[in-house]
From TrEMBL:
NDH-1 is composed of 14 different subunits. Subunits NuoA, H, J, K, L, M, N constitute the membrane sector of the complex. It is found in: Cell membrane. The gene is nuoI. Binds 2 [4Fe-4S] clusters per subunit. [4Fe-4S] cluster 2 binds at C90, C121, C124, C127. It catalyses: a quinone + NADH + 5 H(+)(in) = a quinol + NAD(+) + 4 H(+)(out). This is NADH-quinone oxidoreductase subunit I. One of its GO terms (molecular function) is iron ion binding. Transmembrane segments: none annotated.
Length: 230
């Protein structure tokens, strides 16, 4: 039999739904109930508060908090060597960059442009996880507003934050990064200078292979390296 869709059949109510609580005499008057409500509200005005008056009061998140990803600025420059790993690991493809080279800089590679589309970012922290240079980390910044879609695309200048302002997070990473795999994490600044050209003594333009080996010895002697087991 074809159903008449214009006139849906009335839902038969169960007996439970048909029962209705009878109001007492004072409830029928409403005034006592209103006074009861006012009394409760008044009591709550003097109870301890568990909320904040945001945005007048700002919350300071713990170091484990994953806020807006930022680029670490070290001595006025980004640590990033534009390897592209973060862009590769980013699930919503929020990161885009273009690598460039500067032969006068011992770091040699740097991102010509580096952008994160904050409308796409899901604050997963994968970029921070894969970065070999500790160049991108999750900051405490959660107060992010845009006026347009273009405004949500953060360029290198907006992404860079001095490492001194990220100490909490860097310390957190030092203590917890990759602990589950029984490894250690200790950012070694010298790793940021890893150019093959600079290791070549013939070019004689930067750190020699001897310098690098000396540095490696120093790195191996760090506290974190002592705890490392293969
Ligand atoms: S936090 Fe996640 S989504 Fe955001 S840029 Fe990093 S990898 Fe991409
Ligand atoms: S993974 Fe790190 S070093 Fe590589 S491009 Fe991303 S931020 Fe730069």
């Amino acid at each position: 039999m074809q159903k008449n869709l214009d006139k849906p059949a009335a839902n038969p109510l169960s007996k439970d739904f048909q029962r209705e609580r009878k109001l007492s005499f004072s409830e029928k008057l409403y005034i006592p109930e209103i006074l009861k409500g006012l009394k409760y509200s008044f009591k709550q005005m003097f109870a301890p508060t568990f909320t904040m008056n945001y945005p007048e009061e700002k919350w300071d998140p713990p170091a484990s908090f994953r806020g807006r990803p930022v680029l670490v600025e070290d001595n006025g420059k980004e640590r990033c060597v534009a390897c592209g790993l973060c862009a590769r690991a980013c699930p919503p493809l929020a990161i885009s960059m273009q690598a460039n080279e500067d032969s006068d800089d011992p770091k040699e590679r740097y991102p010509d442009f580096f952008e994160i589309n904050m409308l796409r970012c899901i604050y997963c922290g994968y970029c921070e996880e894969v970065c070999p240079e500790e160049a991108i980390v999750m900051s405490k910044d959660y107060d992010i507003v845009f006026e347009s879609r273009e405004d949500a695309i953060y360029d290198k200048e907006r992404l860079m934050v001095a490492k001194e302002d990220l100490e909490d997070r860097l310390e957190f990473l030092r203590n917890y990064k990759n602990q589950q795999f029984g490894q250690f994490w200790d950012f070694q600044e010298e790793n940021n200078i890893h150019s093959v050209r600079d290791r070549d003594t013939d070019w004689n333009t930067g750190l020699s292979l001897v310098d690098m080996l000396e540095q490696q010895k120093k790195n191996d002697a760090t506290e974190a390296s002592k705890n490392w087991s293969v």
